[in-house]
UniProtKB/TrEMBL annotation, chain A:
Name of the protein: Electron transfer flavoprotein alpha/beta-subunit
UniProt-listed Gene3D superfamilies: HUPs
Gene Ontology MF terms: electron transfer activity
Positions of the Electron transfer flavoprotein alpha/beta-subunit N-terminal domain: 23-212
Stated family: Belongs to the ETF beta-subunit/FixA family.
Domain of life (superkingdom): Bacteria
SMART domains: ETF
Automatic annotation (TrEMBL), chain B:
Any Gene Ontology biological process: fatty acid beta-oxidation using acyl-CoA dehydrogenase
UniProtKB keywords: Electron transport, FAD, Flavoprotein, Transport
Source organism of this protein record: Flagellimonas lutaonensis
Domain called Electron transfer flavoprotein alpha/beta-subunit N-terminal: residue spans: 3-189
Higher taxonomy: Bacteria, Pseudomonadati, Bacteroidota, Flavobacteriia, Flavobacteriales
SMART domains: ETF
Cofactor dependency: FAD
Protein name listed in UniProt: Electron transfer flavoprotein subunit alpha
The family this protein is said to belong to: Belongs to the ETF alpha-subunit/FixB family.
Residues that bind FAD: 207, 263-270, 284
Length: 248, 322
């Protein structure tokens, strides 16, 4: 089985968010970048397939040279080869189009992307990619088994879960649940040393449009101080929620 | 040129978000000097969408589409958009709508923006405000493609009642075997409980609850309020509660009218997941818990004493206001 895991380079989950250039750009000052958590669950599931069932795992990302430490981490975790598409990601369509080009004619049986990146939260890359490639697609995937050419996937739905079956090739939008949090891997020294020897192919992007533009960003308005209620007078909270906040 | 809105239903009944996206579509259509047409699948009462400003409903009556199927639904919606000449398509930001959003965008070569929190600021070209950076910020996004898909966040726009009736037409999209190549074999859905996605109120517990055996009071509080239950990441990681209740940056986002956090300190990743909620209440015995900085109302106290009292007071309030 040949697997491609699509990786997004995102600010660490503890990052405070700021904007520059008159609030038109994300401020990267002091921000540490990591593998998008939803992609990390997918990468770990891909490693599981490699170890238990035999698979070749490639990782791909769209980004400039600055994303290489993130993709090297994926190699240190155990991916066999990496592909960096040498372009700044502009929107979900552009990214999906670039990744679809990598998949075309490469014979991947399974393509795993995160359900969304935790920065721009578009959540459209796996769906657009699957559609452009005319491949089967399961989103918000929290379980995946593959026997021969058949995949059984579990996806999270509002208020429950759904089990689906589809033949390969298949595109997955993955998330927490594909593997347990405790199964996520931290690269060890041997992995880091080996990653240096692994192939990191840089490919040039294909000509593709962006269909959306983020014109401006803003942060939520600052909150006023919390209104504290005496624990011996809980009834006051009920009154405030009814009369002031009007939510009950 | 109409605005097309996909209104979700389950077992023939419209979901709550269907009325919200219909209201949104009506607002967009008015702004564009147009009308709103809805597409729904096997809905029992399609004409009722007139109460939210939709003037025409295309009801797809097809037994193969009784349960959601992303590819077949996206293909049907794309055909309806072409038939109606719709260049603006409104969907929700539910799990199902996000599943079909990307597929539909590729089919229509459309610019797709999910998690939209307000009516468009501009309609030529369309500019919408959406959440980004896991609710730590907002983006004002312009759709440059000829066709636009707007995914409306739950509870962001609200439901507008108009009291009118919509005309209903049957719509029969052309679908083939390829549209059903992903097969649903089992749906395991909690029945009779409010889900986080639909909830106006969410009651959430954290490590301060000390163990899963103490969740009874969270559930009782949720029941009194007609709320959904949720939890913080450590709680789901420890297996006290299922993953599906995990709220936060890597879990479910919550955009309820009221979010009550009990025994949750308020890590930045958790706050990111609940920032979109309108009113936040925190109950924690640690006055230094970061959640107090993000909350509207707070009680510094022992959850095991405060929550039972709160349940009692809410029951009294309900009895008085029944």
């Amino acid at each position: 089985m040949k697997i491609l895991v699509c990786i997004s380079n995102v600010p660490d989950t503890t990052s405070k968010i700021n904007f520059t250039d008159d609030d038109t750009k994300f401020d990267t000052t002091g921000v540490q970048f990591v593998i998008n958590p939803n992609d990390e669950f997918g990468l770990t599931r891909a490693m599981w397939f490699k170890e238990k069932q035999g698979a070749t795992v490639h990782v791909a990302t769209v980004g400039g040279p600055s994303v290489e430490p993130t993709i090297r981490k994926a190699l240190a975790i155990g991916a066999d080869e990496a592909i960096r598409i040498n372009a700044e990601p502009t929107d979900g369509y552009f990214v999906a189009r670039q990744l679809a080009e990598v998949v075309k004619n490469s014979g991947y049986d399974l393509i795993i992307a995160g359900r969304e990146s935790i920065d721009y939260n578009g959540g459209m890359v796996p769906g657009i990619m699957a559609s452009l490639l005319d491949m089967n697609f399961v989103n918000t995937c929290i379980g995946l088994e593959i026997v021969g050419n058949q995949a059984t996937a579990i996806r999270e739905i509002d208020g429950g879960k759904e089990t689906l079956q589809a033949s390969l090739p298949l595109v997955i939008g993955g998330q927490k649940g594909l593997v347990e949090e405790s199964d996520l891997r931290i690269p060890n020294m041997r992995g880091i040393m080996m990653a240096r020897q692994k192939k990191l192919n840089v490919v040039e992007p294909v000509d593709a449009p962006s269909l959306t533009i983020d014109k401006k960003f803003e942060k939520p308005a600052p909150k006023g101080p919390v209104k504290l209620v005496d624990p011996d007078n809980v009834g006051e909270l009920v009154t405030l929620l009814h009369n002031e906040a009007k939510v009950i | 040129m109409s605005v097309l809105v996909y209104t979700e239903s389950y077992n023939g009944k419209f979901k709550k978000n269907a009325f919200e996206v219909a209201s949104y579509a009506h607002a967009v259509a008015q702004k564009m000097g147009s009308s709103a047409t809805a597409i729904c699948f096997n809905a029992e009462d399609p004409a009722s969408l007139g109460n939210n400003g939709v003037t025409k409903v295309l009801n797809v009556e097809n037994d193969n589409l009784k349960t959601f199927n992303a590819k077949a639904y996206a293909n049907s919606i794309a055909q309806a958009a072409k038939a109606e000449g719709a260049k603006v398509i409104i969907i929700s930001s539910s799990a199902d709508s996000k599943y079909l959003g990307g597929v539909l965008a590729a089919k229509l070569n459309a610019g797709y923006v999910p998690n939209v929190v307000a009516a468009p600021e501009n309609t030529a070209p369309i500019v919408v405000k959406r959440t980004a950076f896991s609710n730590k910020g907002f983006a004002h996004t312009e759709i440059t493609a000829e066709t636009a898909i707007i995914g409306v966040s739950n509870n962001a726009f609200g439901i507008i009642e108009i009291k009118a009736s919509a005309s209903v037409e049957s719509f029969a999209p052309t679908l083939g075997d390829a549209d059903f190549s992903v097969k649903s074999i089992e749906v395991d859905k909690v029945v009779g409980k409010v889900t986080i996605a639909d909830a106006d109120i969410v009651v959430s517990g954290g490590r301060g609850l000390k163990g899963p055996e103490n969740w009874g009071m969270i559930e009782e509080l949720a029941e009194v309020l007609g709320a959904a239950t949720a939890c913080s990441k450590p709680v789901s990681d420890m297996g006290w509660r299922p993953h599906s209740e995990h709220v936060g940056q890597t879990g479910k986002p919550v955009a309820s009218n009221l979010y009550i956090a009990i025994g949750i300190s308020g890590a930045i990743q958790h706050l990111a997941g609940v920032n979109a909620s309108k009113t936040k209440v925190v109950i924690n015995n640690d006055p230094e818990a970061p959640f107090f900085k993000a909350a509207d109302y707070g009680i510094v106290g022992d959850a095991f004493e405060v929550v039972p009292k709160l349940i009692e007071k809410l029951k009294e309030f309900k009895a008085q206001n029944a």
